Amino acid sequence: MRTPRPGAFSVLVRDIVRRPGEMRETELDVPLPERWGEGLVSLDAGEHVQVDVRLESVHEGILASGTAFSNYSGECGRCLRPVEAPVEVEFQELFAYPGDEANDFEVQDDHVDLETLVRDALVLSLPFQPVCRPDCPGLDPDTGERLADLPDEESRQSIDPRWAALARFSSEPAEGTDDVSGSQT
Ligand SMILES: [Zn+2]
């Protein structure tokens, strides 16, 4: 069986292996060697991922639970403006002791490697349709301009001309009433 080389997200668990009830907590701060995520937004290479993890020794293996923090960046899905935001996820997974059954996550000699676990949790939590702001109006379908950048005058001109005529009519002052009542002696 292939034994991957311990990576930046590997945590030594030698002191709690096969000692159910033992527990310890560890913090990691790892600059990413490569980009994580393939969507409109992703975690860039060099972005730091911070992990707070609690490792508990149980009969079947090591239970890892914790929180991962980072920042994602990319483009607004509507107007392509750059977007950037923090991301925080919780995770929990049992790293089983190697045995007859194949497990997705296993204790490897004296360590557990949290990389796949943390990576999947973070990448799956990234927004599929990121927006620069909740009401981003996107791009003009004809000109490709950002609608949010257009001055107010443009949107006023788009009012239906018939409605514009009505608005002018109703704002004219009413005439004639004063003269009628005041002319009789
Ligand atoms: Zn936008």
Automatic annotation (TrEMBL):
Residues 143-159 have a biased composition (Basic and acidic residues). InterPro entries: YceD. Residues 136-159 are annotated as: Disordered. This is YceD family protein.
